[in-house]
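User: I'm curious what two different proteins look like when written out as structure tokens. Can you demonstrate?

Assistant: Sure. I'll show them one after the other, since each token string lines up with its own sequence. Here's the first protein:
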Amino acid sequence: AKDPNDRLGIKLSIITRQADGSLTSSSDALKINVANYISQFKSWSENINISDAKIINLKVTFGIISDNITTNGEILSNCFSKIKEFFDIRRWNIGDSISQTLLSSNIQRVPGVIGIASISFDNLVGTINNRSYSNTSFDISAHIKNGIIRCDPDSIFELRYSDFDVMGAVL
């Protein structure tokens, strides 16, 4: 992306995925190595500003309507799996936005779900119940329009602790 502070500059945001799959800031050594590699391909007048992408940790809360045939526990378990699959960090890139319609569609395909009553998102910051989240605050309501939660081009969404950061209920 163009660097807004340098008319000849390029801003490159990078992120590192740890062994457990969670995201973290990249080391200075990695940034230097990336800069050295890219320098082979840039013109002499271009400046490259490599920085850490901001990690936006999310909590997803949803309510579904069941067919009253399938057990609620089975339906919720399958919905949790669909949401975890949707937010699998290997499928996301820096700057990707969230489509609430696409997430709802995935949940709707779970056997026993006949409707989606609600889906909401919260930004998790700092330490909550001994779980560490990034310090990036993100105003979801300011970034949502027409069912799309728009991510800043230098940020990435993460469902950091999927066993704790997804809450659901059968209504």
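Here's a second, unrelated protein for contrast:
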Amino acid sequence: YREIRALRIYDNVAPNMPTGVLTDTSSGSADFTDGQVTAAITGTDNFEIRYYRASDDPTQPTGASTGWQGSPNVLVNLPAGDGSKSVYLWTQDWNGNISPAGEDTITVDQTKPTSSIGAPPTNKDGTVNVNVSGSDATSGVLAYFAKAGDTTPPDPNDPGWTLSPMITVPL
């Protein structure tokens, strides 16, 4: 004969306000995104966190709200338009208590930079010194690229990118 007893602990204490780090899903940048981010949520509770939620909507969710998931890494699609965007973060414990909202921001930049070039006549060695200028109202210009005879946008990993706007291009 064995006696088994179950003990249920009633918990009415909400988890603490979570923190999070937003990163762009394609580049991994924590500064800029083209619209989809991963929210890595960290939360604490007097017992244990069960669910995580992230949204661009600041409305406090209920336990029945959609979007709760068991993983602390939550995908969020941000609304269109350049500028700073907020993502709100919540955690929920096993008894359904929901934390107050945490918040993190990231800058959405969906507008391509503008650029122009100025080039003097061809050098005697078959190259041309190109002065590239560019602007981007949201994130600024990080690097410059120039190549003769090709209008295809360069790969972001092409070794021809340079921090200097003055580029010598072989013809």
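A detail about the second structure: The chain has a mean pLDDT of 91.
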